[in-house]
């Protein structure tokens, strides 16, 4: 009955129910034990180290663009205003870098990848994403990892705009994988029908990078 549409039958709810029904973005393959917060081989730091390829691009919010391409029903280029117009979320998560430092309780603000995926609507064939940054860096993720409920495309850390050295104006944060997957200075997201290696994945790093099973380097 058309009259019977409930408030929760919003586009978002319908999409999420569709995802759940298809099991499309199901994660749950991270091997994190419920009790262990610090992954094996990691040590805690209080500061926030800076790691990148050495080129820190300076991109103002007025210059910044996010191109969304590939297997999506709504390919788009977001400028700053369009990105800010997406639903905004706040999340707290830990960072685990493959170089063995971890940092707890980082407070982020930005657009959850779930809300972002609602806006661009990946096609059924999409199984992976390739991220490209303003410094030329690339990294790949399975769509199921990109769509993790705690993954967020951030513009703020601890209530302040993300600094240039940490990837401002906009970076990805995928806390359940090693931090090399969290592209700084994010510029482009391409949806693909297969997982293909980005920069570090082409240089010996693991294709997935789950810290709890120490997926640091590829076997060969
Ligand atoms: N664009 C871009 N993103 C990047 C990198 C990079 O070189 N370029 N380095 C990655 C690596 S190896 C790490 S450990 C983290 C470091 O982020 P941080 O400098 O904010 O700690 O960014 C990741 N994202
Ligand atoms: Mo790294």
From TrEMBL:
<dbReference type="Pfam" id="PF00174">
    <property type="entry name" value="Oxidored_molyb"/>
</dbReference>
<protein>
    <submittedName>
        <fullName>Sulfite oxidase-like oxidoreductase</fullName>
    </submittedName>
</protein>
<dbReference type="InterPro" id="IPR036374">
    <property type="entry name" value="OxRdtase_Mopterin-bd_sf"/>
</dbReference>
<dbReference type="InterPro" id="IPR000572">
    <property type="entry name" value="OxRdtase_Mopterin-bd_dom"/>
</dbReference>
<feature type="domain" description="Oxidoreductase molybdopterin-binding">
    <location>
        <begin position="55"/>
        <end position="200"/>
    </location>
</feature>
């Amino acid at each position: 009955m058309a009259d019977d549409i409930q408030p929760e039958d919003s586009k978002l709810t319908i999409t999420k129910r569709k995802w759940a029904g298809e099991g499309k973005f199901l994660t749950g393959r991270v091997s994190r034990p419920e009790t262990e917060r610090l992954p094996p081989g990691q040590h805690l730091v209080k500061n926030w180290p800076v790691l990148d390829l050495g080129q820190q691009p300076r991109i103002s919010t007025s210059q910044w663009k996010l191109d969304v391409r590939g297997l999506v029903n709504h390919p788009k280029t977001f400028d700053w205003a369009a990105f800010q117009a997406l639903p905004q979320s706040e999340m707290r998560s830990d960072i685990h870098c493959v170089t063995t430092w971890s940092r707890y309780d980082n407070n982020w603000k930005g657009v959850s990848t779930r809300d972002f995926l609602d806006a661009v609507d990946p096609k059924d064939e999409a199984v992976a994403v390739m991220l490209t940054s303003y410094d030329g860096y690339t990294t790949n993720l399975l769509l199921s990892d990109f769509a993790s409920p705690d993954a967020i495309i951030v513009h703020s850390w601890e209530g302040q705009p993300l600094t240039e050295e940490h990837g401002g104006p906009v970076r990805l944060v995928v806390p359940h994988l090693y931090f090399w997957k969290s592209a700084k200075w994010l510029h482009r997201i391409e949806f693909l029908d297969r997982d293909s290696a980005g920069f570090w994945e082409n240089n010996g790093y693991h294709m997935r990078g789950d810290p709890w099973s120490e997926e640091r380097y590829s076997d060969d």
